[in-house]
Amino acid sequence: MSAADLHKASANAEFVHGHDEAHDDHHDDGIPHAAFKDYLIGFLLSVLLTAVPFWLVMADVLPSKHATTAIIVVFAIAQMLVHIVYFLHLDSRSQGGWNMLAAIFTVVLVVITIAGSLWVMFHMNDNMMPAMVHEMGTSP
Amino acid sequence: MSASNAVMAAEGADRWLVREDLHAQPGTMLGFWLYLMSDCLIFACLFAMYGVVGHNYAAGPSPKDLFELPLVAVNTAMLLFSSITYGFAMIEMQRRRVNATIGWLAVTGLFGLAFVGIELYEFQHLIHEGAGPQRSAFLSAFFALVGTHGLHVSFGIVWLVTLVFQLKRWGLTDATRRRLACLSMFWHFLDLIWIGVFTYVYLMGVLR
Description:
The structure holds 2 protein chains of 2 kinds. Chain A is an all-alpha fold. Chain A has helices spanning 3-24, 36-58, 65-87, 98-138.
């Protein structure tokens, strides 16, 4: 290793180091900073996103069940995002991006697990239904 | 050759590895986040199971016959309130006020207890009506999913009480602050799972 290389490496290390320090004031101990405003916004949005689905279902507002289902699913996903942003403080910078990466990977696995199971099992139910209905009718 | 290498490595290490204190962030928060993500996968499996067998009533009661949405709404409110009060505890922690932190933690714990209490009442009511977990595949999946969530909340309350005692004894040290932050993530994560539960199990169950 030449002296020039060494110098480069040390400069590099310094650069990375300085970069780290620039971020350190945001989370000195890895604990995300919580702001009162964030919690309040998150809470108010959550109340709204919870109350509307319950109202839609309990008061039987919409004539179409499919429309109601679609709306409450959209509201649920929106509220999960609200919780992740305002309560769990997940952003692309926390823990050097590893939190976000793990979360995205988990979402992919969750979607595969749930959507995949439903897809496979309902196709199987469709294909087996005629015989199954008869059997289930006679079993206790 | 090897000797000179070793000398150089030692010199090198001295030069550009240990020049100052490392600013390594403690891995606890990331590790705990990874635990939560794996917990999320457990719930994904339980949701998938509920989705698959949730229509198999075995000629027994359906969600529409069993679920009381007003009770579920109250339960949801309890968990949501506990989330915001935990947030207040975190804010007091940042202000380094131990007693206020403990106070908000206590309020959070009470909301959590109310949630678990209402859920146990609901379970007891269902079992009393003959709609226990052994009645049908739908009810087995229901008790497994909602019960696992309730168990998580219960353990969260145990953890919370433990932390209250630790705060009383040691105050807001680095360790207790880190534990508070971990429990904060755990608590908000459980509220997030509950969004899935009340939407998918209760609201969509009553709709079908």
